[in-house]
Amino acid sequence: MQIEELKSLFLKHKETSLFHRYITNKHIKPLLNNLSKHLTIETIGKSVLKDSIYGLKIGNGDKRILIWSQMHGNESTTTKALFDLLNTLLDKSTETKDILSSCTLYIIPILNPDGAQAYTRINANKVDLNRDAQNLSQPESKVLRTVFESFKPHFCYNLHGQRTIFSAGNTRKIATVSFLAPAQDKDCTITPTRKVAMEVIGVMNDALQSIIPNQVGVYDDAFNLNCVGDTFQSENVPTILFEAGHSYNDYERENTRELIYISYITSLNYIANTSIIDGSKYESYFKIPENGKCFFDIIIRNAKTKDYSKIDIGILYEERLVDGKIEFIPKINKIENLNGFYGHKEIEANGFEIFDANKQCLKVGSENVFVMLNNNEISLLSK
């Protein structure tokens, strides 16, 4: 499908009841109740705090694809896009019929409901589920492993969200979407299994380049068998890591949501209509730059210090759950020369001193809603 057609499908099928960054079981349960009229939904386990973990099955094809989101509870963009995808697949008038006839999808929309509720990366036992693939010490890890063994997927989609710091290479281009074909051994061998994952990523990258040129990255493939993707890849199941990142002024991640949706449809259509035997078309994967860490949310440039030299101030937002909403709290992260780094927003101090609300010098680690620049209040809040 052409990009304009995919964008049109997204607008038509976007699940408007899901928005912003805080997505929990409470938000998706009404949707699951409606979807249960059309597809198989089951409770596949319980979290540490005994919240339900749901599994959805759709399609009747021979190619089995296992998809899970919110393994890290505060990474919700891919979950929103999953419900956009489900709305699309259930619309019989769309151009996605090949997906359902050729593939069977098993989707876990929120693997870590306790982390989602608390808006944390970790689960209620303070364990990172993406480092628990071997120990299987947590109930959520065991649920995913059980589904993996019973469903026997041909592909796995491991869905995540990434911070605003990432760049596509060491450039001024934001890594708005990132991927990885995880290693399956300590030597990071380019195995046939990895080649298959790389080929599919290459197809998604080709589609995204027409929308966000030079804003797609890949992660370092250093091997860690404790990571779920590395484990599944090591068991010869092509596994793809998706990372939903930042785009300009998109702290709600709604623009990125559309890009992830386009990636879903593009990759699933490709899998449905292509016999990917040995990943022979994998080489385009290596044209995607590795992620750098070149961004701050805000950089204040050329601020004067007490000795009259000039310095830069790097600010990162801390995402904080407050009364059921995510707030972005500006915190001073660096006070130093930040040449080679970029801000999603940049403020020129023009050699003036910068003070906090109490007219004190800024300190690393301090929270500041605004700063004083030349006797003017400059807001540091996201729009």
UniProtKB/TrEMBL annotation:
- Gene Ontology MF: a single term: zinc ion binding
Query: What are the GO cellular component annotations?
Result: extracellular space
Q: Give the signal sequence positions.
A: none
Read off the SMART domains from this record. Zn_pept (SM00631)
| Biological process annotations from GO | proteolysis
Which PROSITE patterns does the UniProt record give? PEPTIDASE_M14
- Identify the residues that the record assigns to the Peptidase M14 domain, covering every copy: 18-271
Tell me the Pfam families matching this sequence.
Peptidase_M14
On the tree of life, the source organism's domain of life is Bacteria
- Keyword Coiled coil in the entry? The reply is no
What's the family?
A: Belongs to the peptidase M14 family.
The protein's name: Peptidase M14
Tell me which species this is from. Answer: Flavivirga aquatica
Taxonomy of the source species: Bacteria, Pseudomonadati, Bacteroidota, Flavobacteriia, Flavobacteriales
